[in-house]
Structures are given as structure tokens and as C-alpha cells.
Request: fold
Amino acid sequence: MPTPIPASRRDQHLHGLAVPAAEGPLRRIGVFRALMLGDVLCAVPALRALRAAHPQAEITFIGLPWARDLMQRLPMVDRFIDFPGFPGLPEAGVDQGNVPEFLRQMQAEQFDLLLQMHGSGRIVNPLIAACGARRSAGFYEPGAFCPQPELYTAWPTEGHEVQRLLRLLDHLGVARQGEELEFPLKPQDFSELQAVWAEAASDTPYVCVHVGARFPSRRWPVQRFAEVADRLARQGYTVVLTGSSGEAPLVAEAQSLMKQPSVNLAGRTTLWTLGALVAKARLLLCNDTGISHIAAALATPSVVVASGSEVSRWRPLGRGSHQVLWQAMECRPCHHMSCPIGHACALAIGPAEVSAACEGRLAATMDQPRPSFVPLSYS
Reply:
């Protein structure tokens, strides 16, 4: 069973990570985490700690193509490599024709260290071993394949995702640099948002309502979102409905169910204009999905209705005032795309409860103005 490396076996110590002298310093580090928005944002504190420990190293992030834009702005990442997917991983379809080329590229990189921050490692650890790094570190499931036992640690089964990832760096002797998330915005993001929605330039108080989530099992009923949105609109807030282009039909349904006017920006924002929108919002109401972590990074108050998810692992963790509403169920965390037993965890949370939570967050932050510009980096 892998354990932290004892001091007696550390031939050379470079900023906290044990490096055998014969293998030289860490000049090229790869980080593998081919997941979705919220998952990747939760890795930012670990990336920040890694950068602080190895300021001269070139750090390359290996992830799904959507993450390229995010990584190009994070100051702790130097390069990005697209991951084409792999059999058994559900986050994206597998481009099997590109998997051999991906492995050739990874082997040509000759990373001094490749970190597996994807998860438990049950599926990806053999893939990591095939990438040909001089050494690798990460998580493993007891009894499953573990490429380098001294540098791997057992996958934690409890705790927030941010803290789970930081435990790997604890294992490697890398000092933490806080648990705050980062979502670096630029002035142009606010200008581009105004081109999409001119009222964003005004002082009109607005709330963002995000009815989508990747799986139906993670979605609170659209009708209930509409009821709460109507109540917020009657209190004088402009309701801005957000979502991806793929969620546009769901957002259009929510708007059609509302009795009050609303602004539909589904499919009209980029990752960064969405961030600018959230940054200036008085409140975000959403499911337990990636946008909740954008709000946490930007200190925007939020109310999250968590249906099916593991709240202790995925709740917003960061600046601001956040409230998660959820119902304990024996079947949580849910592993179904769509609930097969009536979605009781979602239906147990009523519109009145959510409205009260929203009003509480708004009242608590009433005197705190939202910024017109958010600094490029919080670190």
C-alpha cells in the first residue's frame, strides 16, 4: 500500500517533492484531469500549490478540448494538450482513432513528472503508465493497478474535491497555497458581455438563474425554477436566464413558464462573458453544476439546489455567501443519468424554501456592491 515517502529515502528535495538525484530536477510537469468545468475549477488550488513549489518548471495541463480557454488564462499553467477520450470514461465521446497519436505525443513529451488528478485511477492509471513519463504520481484504489507505489496515494472517499486533490500534494510534500478558486477575468470580458446584453453596463440589479445541468438527475424541476424566478422579478430584480447552446430548449421552457419578463442569454455567452455576467450578478440560483464554482471563485452569492450529487464533495467552496439546499436520500450520490425512482431528492425541495434562501442571500449582501471589473488573478 503506497505511503508518503520517508525522509530517509529522499535523495534530493526540490520544493517539497522527492526527486532522486540521478533523475534530476523537475523541469517538465504534466497534470492529467480530463473532466468538466466544475471538476477543473476544483483543481485550481492544487495547480497553484504546484506552481508555487516549482516556479521554473513548465506545467502542462492535459484535459478535454473545452478547457483550453480556461488554461490559457490560469497563471499556473504554461501549456495545454487535448485529450481525445478513452474507453470507460464518461465525460466525453472517445475518438479512438486519435488515442494512439495521443499516446505517441505524450511519450514524446518525456515529462519529468505526470500527475494523475483525474480521480481514483481505476480506469486511467494504466493510461498514465503508458504515457512514458519519467515518473508519475496520483491516486489509486486499493487492489487496483498503481504505477509507482511510492508516489501514489489512496483515493480519498470523503472530503471536498478541492481538499481531495490537495491531499495528493500533501503526500508529495508540496505546501498548500490556500483553497480559493480562481476564475481570471479581463476588462474585455465585460465589454463583450455588454455587446451581448447592453443592460449589463447599467447598475440594474439582476440575478442569474441557471436551470441546466449535465444530467437530468441533477436538475431541479424547470417549473419550480420559473416560480422562484418570478418571485425574484416581482421584487425588482432583472432575471437573466443562462445556459449553453445545448441547454437552450430547457432555458426557453423556463422562460415560457415565467409570468414575469426575463432575459434569455442561453447559448449567447462564452466561458468568459458568462463569468463577467456572474461577477456582476446579485445572486446566482442554479443546480449543482459548474457555474456554481464560477460564482464561488468570483464571490457572487449563490443558492444551489443539489439533486442527487454528493454535497460534501461538490458544494461551492470559496469566497462569498453560498447556500446549498438538498434532501438526504439513501441513494445519494446518484449514479444515474436520469432518476429511475421518481427524483424524490429534487421534489423534496420546494419553491418556497428556495425563494426564502434566495431572499436571505440577497438581504445579507444588499450593501455589498458587485464589481464592474474583477482583477485578473486572485492569487
Residues 1-15, 375-379 have pLDDT under 50 and may be disordered. The domain at 187-364 is CATH 3.40.50.2000 (Rossmann fold).
